[in-house]
Amino acid sequence: MVIFNRVVPRKISMTGLTFDWDDVEIHDPQVQAALAELDQDFKQRVWYRQSSSREGLHVMIAELDYDTLFGLILNPIQLPVETQFAYRSKYGEAPWSLECEGRFFSDQVRAAEGFRTSRVFISKNGMSAGPWKCYGCEEE
Asked: Domain tally for the chain?
């Protein structure tokens, strides 16, 4: 058995852009305005779902892709960490104040140590998040 005494983190320079917006609902005017603004930058690649707590939203910039094993999957758009943090900072500050401060802070620490950031989980405390929906792609 080989035991490693030291783990050297690798630098992660690209990662997906996700948001964790607490205490909001999809129909909130501020959420709709933020999603519309993101859609201007990312054209029908803005996906959202209700968080597992049912008290907030996860937002991800992604493309629908086909995987031979899993079928249709959401594939996060890879962006430089600096770009990702600029977007998250923007939507965490006034007038938006949407991004979860704790998650954003912990992701900054993770990035500084070379670890992956922008993770959103499908379940938490035994509850599952809702299905992903494409903003602006919904049928009327």
From this structure: 1
What is residue 13's predicted lDDT score, i.e. its pLDDT?
59
**Amino acid present at 86:** A
First vs last Cα of the chain: how many Å apart?
59
Q: What angle (nearest 5°) sits at the alpha carbon of residue 90, between those of residues 105 and 26?
A: 95
Q: What is the mean pLDDT of each run of 10 residues along the chain (140 residues)?
A: 39 76 96 97 95 92 90 89 93 95 90 83 83 80
Q: How far apart are CA 108 and CA 117, in angstroms?
A: 8
Instruction: Please report which helix (H) or strand (E) contains residue 103, including its range.
Output: helix 101-112
**Residue 6 in domain:** no
Say whether the peptide bond before residue 29 is cis (omega within 30 degrees of 0).
Answer: no
Tokens of 107: 């992701």
74 with 17: CB under 8 angstroms? no
Question: pTM here?
Answer: 0.85
Instruction: Supply the range of the domain harboring residue 33.
Output: 14-132
* CA distances from residue 73 to 21, 48, 100 in whole angstroms, order as listed: 23, 14, 26
